[in-house]
């Protein structure tokens, strides 16, 4: 879309120069662009047909459907984190309108980014409730879009686990940012509030203590490893992308808690710099770790607390010695 299409100033500026129509260059120079969020929520009506029926557009009042409103608010909170913390204008950095579909499928136990939009199931009602109930899950799915437009981490093996982990990082940061919560006060849980009361568990994953999020008769025990000694070699799940993500997740959370301030300003900024920086799409954990250290030096300096906390964290999880 045009950078100026949604600017409230556009008509004024066009009118002010009506005698000589403004060129795009003049319009760009006339006023700084203020990125604004542009959300569209659709309802799949419990089918798997996308996008579904449009039910809420930007600046529309809340509807009577909690899933619609949670998706709308969650997209807004994610847009706000990206802009306030990282100066990023939406998922693509160029004001991409944010689109989500709710009530996808029948008893559908997941949420996903399909390359263009976020999609949320209602859950089966036995293990899972609706997937819009967790802000960290909304942030997680949108962050897959950010990764797609930046590092493009291949969704397989270690680069896939890094892709998953970066989505968890952004999911956690969206929650903390929206609550104004410091790293040492945060839960570091991903997907809190998704389980029904029948499940013995707190969330889908714990970034600070991977492997402890749930222990349930039906689901079993949270299988995430917390360090390289527990790395899981498997062909399932694209090479265990949702399992081994526990390792970089814990490195992030440990460093953030050690530093103790707003995680999006310290370690979060370094991880974001890393994902937009010169990183191979097939980066290994060790390559990603080295890239975070390089980014921390540039952002905070060679003698910074951020650099040493990140070094220590990668060593604790066994990625660097
Ligand atoms: N919720 C999962 C995820 O975003 C869905 C998937 O595996 N694609 O990682
Ligand atoms: Zn994911």
Automatic annotation (TrEMBL):
<keyword id="KW-0378">Hydrolase</keyword>
<keyword id="KW-0479">Metal-binding</keyword>
<keyword id="KW-0645">Protease</keyword>
<comment type="similarity">
    <text>Belongs to the peptidase M4 family.</text>
</comment>
<keyword id="KW-0964">Secreted</keyword>
<keyword id="KW-0482">Metalloprotease</keyword>
<keyword id="KW-0862">Zinc</keyword>
<feature type="domain" description="Peptidase M4">
    <location>
        <begin position="49"/>
        <end position="148"/>
    </location>
</feature>
<feature type="domain" description="Peptidase M4 C-terminal">
    <location>
        <begin position="151"/>
        <end position="319"/>
    </location>
</feature>
<comment type="function">
    <text>Extracellular zinc metalloprotease.</text>
</comment>
<protein>
    <recommendedName>
        <fullName>Neutral metalloproteinase</fullName>
        <ecNumber>3.4.24.-</ecNumber>
    </recommendedName>
</protein>
């Amino acid at each position: 879309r045009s950078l100026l299409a949604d600017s409230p100033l556009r008509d004024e500026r066009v009118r002010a120069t009506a005698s000589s129509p403004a060129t795009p260059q003049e319009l760009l120079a006339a006023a700084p662009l203020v990125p604004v969020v542009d959300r569209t929520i659709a309802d799949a009506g419990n089918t798997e047909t996308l996008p579904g029926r449009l039910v809420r557009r930007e600046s529309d009042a809340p509807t009577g459907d909690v899933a619609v409103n949670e998706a709308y608010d969650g997209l807004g909170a994610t847009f706000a984190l990206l802009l306030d913390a990282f100066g990023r204008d939406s998922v693509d950095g160029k004001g991409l309108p944010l689109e989500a579909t709710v009530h996808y499928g029948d008893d559908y136990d997941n949420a996903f980014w399909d390359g263009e939009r976020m999609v949320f199931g209602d859950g089966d009602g036995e293990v899972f409730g609706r997937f819009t109930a967790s802000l960290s899950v909304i942030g997680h799915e949108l962050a897959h879009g950010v990764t797609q437009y930046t590092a493009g981490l291949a969704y397989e093996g270690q680069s896939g686990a890094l892709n998953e982990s970066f989505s968890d990082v952004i999911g956690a940061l969206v929650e903390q940012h929206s609550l104004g919560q410091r790293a040492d006060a945060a839960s570091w849980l991903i997907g809190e509030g998704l389980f029904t009361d029948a499940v013995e568990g707190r969330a889908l994953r714990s970034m600070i203590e991977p492997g402890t999020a749930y222990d349930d008769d039906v689901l079993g025990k949270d299988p995430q490893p917390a360090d390289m000694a527990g790395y899981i070699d498997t062909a399932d799940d694209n090479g265990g992308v949702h399992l081994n993500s526990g390792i970089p997740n814990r490195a992030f959370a440990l460093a953030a808690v050690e530093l103790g301030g707003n995680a999006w300003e310290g370690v979060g900024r370094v991880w974001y710099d890393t994902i937009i920086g010169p990183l191979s799409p097939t980066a290994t954990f060790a390559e990603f770790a080295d890239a975070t250290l390089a980014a921390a030096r540039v952002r905070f300096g060679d003698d910074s607390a951020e650099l040493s906390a990140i070094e220590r964290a990668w060593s604790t999880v066994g990625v660097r010695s």
